[in-house]
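To assess whether the prediction recovers the assembly geometry, we first specified each molecular entity separately, as shown.
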Amino acid sequence: MAKFHYRLLSCLALSLGITSSAFAQQDTTLYHLRTVEIFGKPAEVFASGSRVSTLDSSFIRTYASGSIADALQARTPVFLKTNGPSGISTPSFRGTSATHTAVLWNGLNISQPALGLSDMSLLPLSSIGSIAVQHGAAGATYGSGAIGGAVLLNSPTQQEPGFGAEVLQEVGSFGRYFSSASARYSGQKVSVALGGYYLAAENNFFFRDYGRIGAPTRRQDQAQVAQHGFTQDVNWQLSPNTRLALHGWYTYANREVPPALGAANTNAKQIDRNLRLMTALNHSSNWGETTVRAAVFNDYLRYTDNSNNSLTDINTYQVQAEQTYTYARRWSLRGGLNLQHFEADVQGYGRQVTEDRASAFLLFRYDPSKRLDLSLNLRQAFVKGYNPTPAPTLGANWLLLEQNEHKLYLKGNVSGSYRVPTLNERFWQPGGNPDIKPEQGWSYETGLRHRYTWGRVQLESELSVYRMLVDNWIQWMPVTSSFWTPRNLQKVRSQGIELSSSASTSFGDWQLAATGAYTYTSSEQVKAYEGTQELNRQIAQVPLHKVQLGADLSFRTWTMLGNLTHTGLRYTDNSNAGSLPSYTLLNLAVHKKFTLGQYQFIASVRSDNVTNRAYTVLENVPMPPRSLTAGLRFVIP
Amino acid sequence: MKKITCFRSYFLSAAFALGALAFTSCDDDNNTGPAGEYARNGVLISNEGAMTKSNASVSFYSHGSKSVENESFKKVNAPLVMGDVLQHMTQHGDQLYLVMNNSGKVVVTNAQTLKAEGEIAGLEAPRYFAALNDDKAYVTEWLGYDPATFVYSNGRVAVIDLKTNTVTKTITVGVQPEQIVIAGGKLYVANNGGNTVTVINTATDAIETTIAVNEGPNSLALDRNNMLWVSSRGIKAYDPVDWSVSEESSTPGSLAKINPTSNSVVATLTFSQNAPAPGKLTPNLNGDKLYYVFNNKVWVQDVNATSLASQPLIDRGTYVAYGFNGLGVEPTSGTIYAGKATDYASNGWVVRYNPQSGAAVDSFRVGIAPNGFLFR
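The predicted structure of the complete assembly is given in tokenized form:
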């Protein structure tokens, strides 16, 4: 395995070497896909009638030293199950579990195949150009796992021509150090971007140890984190109509897992190493746009504690070819094929496991009039022995009212989704269940979107109501006293309301942008296929209410960011007998830009959990108190 | 499935409830007993909780109000967290001792109020607790698990000073020492990872002898004749593919009778099936009957019988894997209490069974994975 890594890494270096010697010098205009111009953001083209939100780039830059988990927690209604200050952080979209979120990087699914989920704290914001969040099912567009939603990550696109670089250094409370550096060059034909980061955090905050008699104040000593990684993005305009892109992304994390209050410290530690390499070829012709992506991913995970030593090492090879034809701003049709090959060396399987999966998709966007756009999408996945039923999507977005500066849209969509059982669910020894069926989801949603422009004030609000049924929901259960096994146990119904509003305005040197969102999520098991299960109770760890408020205020060279999130009560068990109290967190950041000739310095001060709230996300795992971080960013534009 | 059994047992339950009432009316515990919320006529239930989650709990069932209160420890002591994996709960004098396996400690509370009073810390994977007198107690500890070989090293018995709640001495015994029983000034330790019972002199805290028994002794019980019964698992061979216990390659479990005066095995009753393992030996009040779990069913052993029972007392057919996660016999009524763990993510049940017919009488909801009972 190690050898393989070396080869991949040297390939990466080699590709960098080649391109850096091929720097071109002339300016070039920004390259954009035609479909993007016509239909808006790429994530929304085939998503008529569904809810897609994007995280603004200023936020990503301000929180560049954080992870995607931090960004989702602060700026979206998604609830993140965070296992302590250093730990695993998995999203729960619309009352579903972590395996019901598809995470795509430049269009390809990067979920860890053994567990079928992505740990959001492993994905640094500094490696990402843009983040879009698809709320609700979109199995046709994003494939397996997109039951509750999808997180779409894209590498940075080319910026202004020429050379640019950035260095960021941060120092924070509880022994936190973050450094990152990036450089980019855009020429007429080639653009190259390189970045690396390093994070070390002791997380040695003080907390009251209620697991001991007398509740002594103790320092957290089992939450150290060391993370580093780098990215490289190369875009090569081979001809006016052809572009080649190479993306490399490596992340490494070595984290201690803190024990719950009252539990013995078992020295739990987790090492994650993920290498992702992708090449994408783009070609425009009279037949439309052709995109071919090929990727190789390696996901390595070693978990150790006093009584465990488990190793997961999986190579994924993935190819996706798609053809998009766009006709006169009226319709766009995309057809494609995705092939995946997994080679899994997982200790728990007792043997090497390989698997091939394929899926074919057809995405259709039709704008019969300027006021109406429709999507009709379909995907069929093929997995030997585990073929899910086809996942269609029908969505519409209709400009219902247009008066003065008001625009009111009515939208709705019906969407099928599925999740192919993970490798662990099928191959783990003992317990893996080869007879398990794929999960199947149906989602119905409707909503209103309102846009209003009044002078410099822009207001956009969205209200969505959804109802989702997930059948054959897989859950591990004990069947004999010696081991657990996954079963298609449940039918889960999740329904809720999502309300969000954002406003932006500017006057003089002042600029203000504010967002607010509220979600109500009711997620219950409505049917059980086996055993005594809990019916019609809120699923554990899904908050009924979440409120999020955010504001960015800037004045000349000053910028202030604030985030307030309120997470409602969560039940700790499926019987709803125990619960954890709600909590409200406030994060604030200020930065100031200094200009020195053509260079820029940005000094920043940030405080998380400003009100010093003692809280836990999961039971008995205390989270950090107020923290302070100071940072300095040096930018060569 | 559950509903049907419940229905079937309503008649029995009615009849039985009358019987229970008759008992409670004779019982003047409420008037003269010690003061405290949990001193009432009822049952304390230990709920193991899910490992690493620190959600173990204590429930209290009151015979008077016929109702159950869950999270009793939390109600009294919050925000204090009891700990992770409540393996064993036992009472000595006015104190309740709660063995928190994955917290490495024993939590000490007042037995009547459940108010936390202290803890015996510094233990490694403690399993079972037994008090000799007001000064001294013993706790078994598992040591030295190797995740590569799945094997433990020799465990130990910690000697506890109950005045200071500290460990004063440790005695190395066999592998995975499990249940302990004090009889005739001696401490008997079932070495579950081996095939011996260690005998420790409680005056000197030195090992006196070890008694060879069938492989995997896991539970101990004293009968009315002062004979010590040991349930042994037998050697279990697992199918490497589906991890089921192989009927061909395993050896049968057994019940053995030890005479504590001679420290010798006087009888061994061996099961006919190889794969299932017996466990959770629980005597009734008289000590003339021993209840135990075998093959996910509850069986009764007459202490004077020379062979094993041919029919189970409680047979739920295909039943949840942890349907008998805990077993208790109410001293006065003889009612059998079973702790039924559904999974470790939702609360379990206590199911009560008629001691004569073995029929389910009623059930009530408790915490996660109930595993033990203390009858008041």
